[in-house]
Amino acid sequence: MTAQPWRGVAAEQRDEDSAAAALLRSRSRRLLGDLLAGSRGRVALTFALIAIASLAALAGPWLVGIGIDRGIPPLSRDGDTGPLLAVTAAFAVTVVVQAIATRSYIYSMGRLGERVVLDLRKRLFAHFQLMSVSFHDDYTSGRVISRQTSDVDAISALFEDGLDSLVSAVLSLLLVGAGMLLLDWPLGLVVLAGFGPLVWLTAWFRQESAIAYRRGRESIALVIVQFVETMTGIRAVQAFRRQRRNDEIFGELNSGYYDASLRSFRLVAVYAPAITLVGNVITGVVLFYGGLRVIDGDIKVGVLVTFLLYLRRFFDPLQDLAQFYNSFQAAGAALEKISGVLAEPPSVPSPASSVRLPDRSGGGRSVRFAGVTFGYRAESVIDGLDLELPAGQTTALVGTTGAGKTTVARLLARFYDPDEGRVLLDGVDLRDLDDPALRAEVVMITQENFLFSGTIADNIRLGKPTADRAEIESAGRAIGADEFITSLPGGYDADVGKRGGRLSAGQRQLVSFARAFLAAPAVLILDEATSLLDIPAERMVQRALRTMLGERTALIIAHRLSTVEIADRVIVLDGGRIVQDGPPGRLLAASDGRYARMHQSWQSGLA
Fold first, then answer.
1. Reading across the β-sheet that carries 428-429, which strands appear in turn?
2. Are residue 384 and residue 277 in the same domain, yes or no?
């Protein structure tokens, strides 16, 4: 009988899932080892303190047994309390040692955990900043927030609530098991015989809870993504009355997280009572068997009491593991997701060894697109583009929506790398420049430039962090922003609010222009940068641009053809290809050309 094909496919899928899970675990362990690499001394100290506390705790039952067998009988015969006092004093010492060691390892573990979390947050923040624009296009802000908040918090909770318990439980199991065998090996074998069900239960719980907690981390990430997306687009939500649909989506995702969490608690509700049941059964068997041996005189009462006390310390760690396994699994699932993000390579990587650009003295640099092909995912936008922009030339890039204008700008700013071909700056491939060098040479101003919380002066200073107040105000005057800035309460020290919300769209754009003026790059890219300005403000900015551009190279992308007036050259794109190229006056004179028709259509729209 031949095997059914679907069985082979299912087996292959299981193998792939198993391999993927193994990779996740391996990557997570490497990340954790890397995070702990600088704290090996503290890790060793913490483990040593846990071992001391465990040994001190295990000494208690042993001393109780000695006190019963050697301290109480003499007291009942001749009143000699010396042995009992000695045992009691030794017991007190172990209690003090245990308390001090426990306090010390809890504090040490706390410091270790906070150091790990501190390092992890810094790594994530730095990594997310280094990742390219394409990564952030695909990886939503909600998932970014989930990695930085709930996932890191899960790892922090592991150090706060669970890791010391795990180490202490493992040590207790080993030490108590060895101690019981040394104390009385027949009774020890009885306990070990009942250890089989415990191992099976723990293995089952570990496997099932790992799946449940991984689903839980995925579910909470989806909840956060939906929440962030809704709040970010709250204006559109309210304008188009999408509240009900958003409630439905959020309710489904929230219910998914509820179900995943409930599944985890169900597993704990099975595992913990099962451990208790097995422990109680074994305790009953030991009490019966040990009692018979005491009656027969094979062992002393103190030995049996010690053994029963050790049994409690043997099963309590397993119950602790059940109690804290939430933290273990949640942290493990979170660590898998974080390690996956940190292992994600940037699609626009820094060169292994950067190339130095030739020196310049205030002028521009030549730009060349050599056989550039690029597309977003499977959709091609630019195909074999050859374009050269001489140093100091102001070039306007026009075309219909989707023609590839913004893509050209993004490639020049190296937000993306071409799929084929090269983008060259003074003959140097952008991929051979390190990021600081590239950002000092190329500045891009978009339609909605971002303003950070702080003052207007702080936002302008981003263009040149070492700039003094006079340079900042000079940049403001150069682009005509000084008039509105000085009219605000506080002037250049006025707070722009969250994302520049206290300024109008036009004012925000003027601040971003001042920022770029201050940066004084070799290449300036304006991507619909004047589209949010009214006509008077646009004229004012155009006058400032003529002064500012000077000999610098500029690439201007605009739908408003009035902005093209300052250009030395106009390039018309269509489908990622150049269909017209020349001075604006000459292209306008060709009445049957694409640019002339666009200009006529634009003028008709103004009428």
1. 379-389, 367-376, 420-425, 428-429
2. no
